[in-house]
Each structure stands twice: as structure tokens, then as C-alpha cells.
Amino acid sequence: MAALGRGEVDWWELPPRDLVEQVARDRNLTVVSRYATAIGVLRFNHLHPPFDNAAVRRTLLGAIDQAQAMTVLAGTDPAFWYDGIGLFGTGTPLANEAGTDVLRSPRDYAAVHQALARAGYTGERVAVVAPTDVPPPP
User: Fold this and answer.
1) How far apart are CA 108 and CA 114, in angstroms?
2) For residue 7, how far is the Cα from the chain centroid?
3) Among the residues of 8-108, which ranges form H helices?
4) Model-wide pTM > 0.90
5) Quick one: the chain helix, strand, coil %, rounded to 5?
6) Which of 88, 97, 92, 80 is nearest to 33 (CA)?
7) What is the model's pLDDT at position 81?
8) In angstroms, rounded to a whole number, what is the distance separating the alpha carbons of residues 126 and 44?
9) Cα separation of 9 and 3, whole Å?
10) For residues 40 and 30, what is the distance between their CA atoms, to the nearest angstrom?
11) In this predicted model, what pLDDT tens digit does every residue of 66-125 receive, in sequence order?
């Protein structure tokens, strides 16, 4: 990034997402974001409790805030990320809004908590696996 700012290199193909906003603030540089370099997927392990219960999985979606997650991953400028989308990325041939109502509606954590209890969730511990060693695509 420093070499780019000093004019020692002409371009940087895949800057880390957490640096893109900083690069974009330099008036001498232009950030062009045409393709997603990463797709985040939240996948519940449906073989083990509590996610072996489909009602728990559906209910928990009401607690997911894609914009908040994308802000953490890609910065505060929404020009560099998408939210409110389903499995297929925005602008791709299979993209659609089926099933995304729960992701687009306001978060109501109290209602999610109550719905989880009705779905049978009893406070089982949940492990979140978040790999940090995923290399960028070639």
C-alpha cells in the first residue's frame, strides 16, 4: 500500500478488504471494485444440536445482520460490499430475492430469542468456526 501511495507501483490487484477504504481516501488513487473477491457463507452444521432442528436454523436468521457483518469484513463504505442478498451474489445469473425477507427486515432480537425458545432451543453451546488463513483467489 505504501509503494502504491508513493507511485512505486501502478496497481494493486487484490488489496486486503480492510485496507480498501484507506486506499480509496487517497485522492491520487482510484479503487475499482468490479468483482467480489470473497463470498461469505454462514452455514449451520445441521447434523448436530441445536442446528439439527430446522426451526432453530430458520429462527436464527432473524438475528443475522448482513450489513453489520459486511462492515466488519469490508469497511464502512457500502460501495465496496453488498447486503440483503441470498446465496447467489448480486448481479449473477441466479441472483434473486427468494427467502431474503428475513434478512431485509429490521432486527428484533427479543422476538428471535422468544422464537428460539418456541423452536426448542435450550441454550446449547454453539461453536463458530472462522478460518483466518483463507488465501485470496489467484
Assistant:
1) 10
2) 32
3) 17-24, 54-60, 66-74, 101-104
4) no
5) 35, 0, 65
6) 80
7) 79
8) 10
9) 6
10) 25
11) 888 888 877 787 877 788 888 887 788 898 888 888 888 899 999 999 999 999 999 998
